[in-house]
Amino acid sequence: MSEQEYPDEATEREDGSSCATWLEPRPQRNPHGTADLSGKVALVTGGGWNIGRAVALKLAQAGARVVISSRNRTNLEETVAFARERRLRVRHLVCDLTIPSEVDRLFEDIERNEGRVEVLACLAGGFGAGQPLPETNPKEWLDVLLRNFYSTYLCCRAALPGMLAGKKGDILTCAGGGAFFPMVGVHATAYASAKAAVCRFTDQLYAEVLDVPGIRVNCMEPGLTWSPKDLERIKAEEEATGQPHPLRERNHDPEDGAELALFLLSPAARPLNGRILSVDEDWWQDPERVAYVARTDLYRLRRTFEAE
Ligand SMILES: NC(=O)c1ccc[n+]([C@@H]2O[C@H](COP(=O)([O-])OP(=O)(O)OC[C@H]3O[C@@H](n4cnc5c(N)ncnc54)[C@H](OP(=O)(O)O)[C@@H]3O)[C@@H](O)[C@H]2O)c1
Questions:
Q1: CA 40/CA 63 separation, integer angstroms
Q2: Per-10-residue mean pLDDT for the chain, 308 residues long?
C-alpha cells in the first residue's frame, strides 16, 4: 500500500493541465441543507474512477477526511490530484479489496493515520463475465462476485468493530443492473447475482445492527453512468452513425450518484436505514417524503405478494 499526505494547498499537474476535466463537482444542492461531514473519516472504495471518484470528491467537499482505495494506482493518483486542485482532503491507498489480509491492512493504516472509519462507501465492483452462461469462464464469473460482493463484505467486516465501539457509522453499498429485474438482451448472470447479493447483504446487516441506532446501512443504485472511456467510444460511434446512442437519454453524470451518496451518508438521511435508493428517483430530495418513507417498508428488498 502506498502512503500519501493530504494536500496543504492546490497544486497543478506537471504539464499544467487539469486532470479529469470530464468531472466537475457541482456545488452542494442538497434541499435538506448543507451536508457537513467535517471531522469524519470516510473510506470510498473504487474511488479512483468514475462514480467512486465523484463520491470521494463529494464527501471531501462536505468536509470528510477521505481515503480512496482500489488496485489501479494511476487512477487513484488522478483522483488525488483532482482533489488537490480543489484543496480537498483525499488520500489514496492501493489495495485489492478481494484479499482479506490486504483489506485488514488498509483499515489498520487508516485507523493509524486518520482514525476510525465512520463513513464507508463501498463502490468497488463493476460488470464482467458478460457472455451467454455456457461460454462464461468460471474464474471471471467468480471474480465479478468477489469484486462486487465479497469486497463489500470484507470492508464492512473490517469497519464494523470500530463503528460498534463508537456506536456510530454510516455504510453505503452499491447495487446495479439486474439486482431487481432481469436485464433483457444482456448476459449478466454474474453481475446481477453479485448486485442482488449486495442488496440482500445490506438488508440483513441492517437488521443485525438495528440495536445500535447510530449505525445505518443503506444501498444506492447509481444508474447507467458511462465512464470517460465509455464516453469516448460512444461519441465515436455517434459520430460514425450520425445518431445519438439509444441509451444516451438514460445516462447519468457521475455527480448524480455522488449527490445521492452524500445524502445517504449525511444526517439528513438518518431516518432511512436498510433502504435501496436509485438515482432515477428524486423523492429523497423532499424531507416530507423521506419522513413518510421512513414510516413504511418502501425501498427495502422484499418479495411483494397479493394480500388475500
Ligand atoms: N457505471 C455504471 O453504469 C453503473 C451502473 C450501476 C452500478 N454501477 C456500480 O457502481 C460502482 C462504481 O461504478 P463505476 O462505473 O464507477 O466503476 P467501474 O467502471 O464499474 O469500475 C469498477 C471499480 O471497482 C474497482 N475495483 C474492481 N475490482 C477491484 C478489486 N479487486 N479491488 C479494489 N477495487 C476494485 C475499480 O478500481 P481498480 O480497477 O483501480 O481496482 C473501479 O474503481 C460499481 O460497483 C458498479 O458496479 C455502475
A1: 8
A2: 45 38 58 85 98 98 97 98 95 98 98 98 98 98 98 99 98 95 94 98 98 98 94 95 94 96 96 97 94 96 83
CA dist., res. 120 & res. 273, Å (int): 14
Indicate whether this model's pTM tops 0.90. Answer: yes
Residue 191 belongs to domain with CATH number:
3.40.50.720
Q: What is the C-alpha separation between 175 and 29, in angstroms, rounded?
A: 24
Instruction: Tell me, in angstroms, the distance from the centre of ligand 1 to residue 174's CA.
Output: 10
> Ligand 1, atom 20: nearest CA belongs to which residue?
126
Residue 148 carries which DSSP code? I
**Domain total of the chain:** 1
Which whole-number Å values give the CA distances from 185 to 178, 182, 188, 225, in the listed order?
12, 9, 9, 19
